[in-house]
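Researcher: I'd like a structural prediction for the single chain below. Treat it as a standalone chain; there are no partners to consider.
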Amino acid sequence: MAITDIVQGNGDGAPKRPGARVGWFVVIWSLSTAAFIAAASLLHLLIPK
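Model: Treating it as a single chain, here is the predicted structure.
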């Protein structure tokens, strides 16, 4: 199931199972955290001390 299938419309097509909703939350939160850490690490390497 693609994320675009979930966010279309007013949420009528969203997964009904709480486990699926929690799973999407965990996946999106993990990816955003990883992107933040990667950006912070890159900045840390680029900025001289």
